[in-house]
Amino acid sequence: xxxxxxxxxxxxxxxxxxxxxxxxxxxxxxxxxxxxxxxxxxxxxxxxxxxxxxxxxxxxxxxxxxxxxxxxxxxxxxxxxxxxxxxxxxxxxxxxxxxxxxxxxxxxxxxxxxxxxxxxxxxxxxxxxxxxxxxxxxxxxxxxxxxxxxxxxxxxxxxxxxxxxxxxxxxxxxxxxxxxxxxxxxxxxxxxxxxxxxxxxxxxxxxxxxxxxxxxxxxxxxxxxxxxxxxxxxxxxxxxxxxxxxxxxxxxxxxxxxxxxxxxxxxxxxxxxxxxxxxxxxxxxxxxxxxxxxxxxxxxxxxxxxxxxxxxxxxxxxxxxxxxxxxxxxxxxxxxxxxxxxxxxxxxxxxxxxxxx
Length: 357
Known about the structure:
Elements: H1 4-16, E1 30-35, H2 49-60, E2 71-77, H3 79-84, E3 91-92, E4 95-96, H4 101-108, E5 113-119, H5 124-133, H6 135-149, E6 152-156, H7 165-178, E7 192-196, H8 204-214, E8 225-227, H9 236-248, E9 265-270, H10 279-282, H11 288-291, H12 293-298, E10 312-318, H13 335-344
Parallel strand pairs: 1-2, 1-10, 2-5, 5-6, 6-7, 7-8, 8-9, 9-10
Antiparallel strand pairs: 3-4
Helix pairs in contact: 6-7
């Protein structure tokens, strides 16, 4: 009986001492920005490199010579023009005139990976039309552009009602016939990703198909998905709740949406919105990428995958994504937000091989 007080004391002390996590936090492997150019995501004008650098230098220099990101996604390519290899006032052989080899090399020469995004909400009808006309040729054209420029391709098909999933499957099959899935990530053109909604309640059919058939860890077809930004910036808890939906899936839907492995998607946040600077751009200490960082790096699998933690973050969007708002132009850019986050999270440049499970 004389040992009982000591035993009780030791039990109380054990409850007060924080436990060590069962796993180390996953590294932030993808830390990128969609880039809309200076004309609201059309990229219809070829840029002078000096002028481009004056507005975008923060992306390749966080203040100490290291890039702020390890990925830039040039947004957007119009699907129907890519299918038809259109050349007009703002397009060259199906690609926006501003998405030049020189712009790609501006980033890749600093170790920053580059991708082209096909679609966006403005080009939803164009996606429908291109998939109806010839999805296989669209996939082959995308593969040719990727090989020519040394970039990857992002699918941003934002059709919420009755998307053409058969056509989209044909597009992906055609692309993969030229650039097979590459787990090492060493071949830029083999990187093929897809955008889904912030959570599971929009773009449901696309999300269900992608999760069930293209983003499986045992038989991957696409490299990963981007959980896009919400309708407007929100709280850390709201963003986390959306991202958790992907991990959990929606068993109550008919048919259900299966769970997605944390290692198969990134979390999207605004870096430019409205007329006031966001902390995501200017102040990492008060930013959402800091407030959500522990969750993003430790989110546990819940039915798919074996490792904890999302792949990282994507930010919408560099330079001038809207006719309204400030954008992210120099002199300071987003060194204090995204750049500081890259340092805090130890983001590797170039991007390392991605976790596969």
